[in-house]
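User: I'm curious whether this sequence folds into something compact or stays loose and floppy. Could you predict its structure so I can see for myself?
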Amino acid sequence: MLQAIDGKLKIITSQHILNEVRKVLQDPKEGFQLSEQEIDDIINGILLYAEIVNTDARIDVVRDPKDNHIIACAMAAKAHYIITRDKDLLSLKEYAEIKMLTPEEFLALFK
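Assistant: Here's the prediction. I'll summarize afterward.
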């Protein structure tokens, strides 16, 4: 996060992804048990550091259709990496020259 703050990395998201984050945080099955204010604070925290991109592209490359929006967002931003723990995304390893890495794999690039 410090490198992102220094401008060396960009954190990219889309409105669709932020809406999905909100849904997950509100879902009782997920077990977060957060108030609406806490969820708003989390979303606002993301927005402090993230750039929102428009994702007009419709792609179908991942088993879980919700994950396609993440790839479309990365493509719109011309990202080099998607940092994730999502098994479907990680199984791709790479798509459209965008590498799928766990946080640990990504951090290891800078050691």
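Summary: The radius of gyration is 14 Å. DSSP finds six helices and five strands in the chain.
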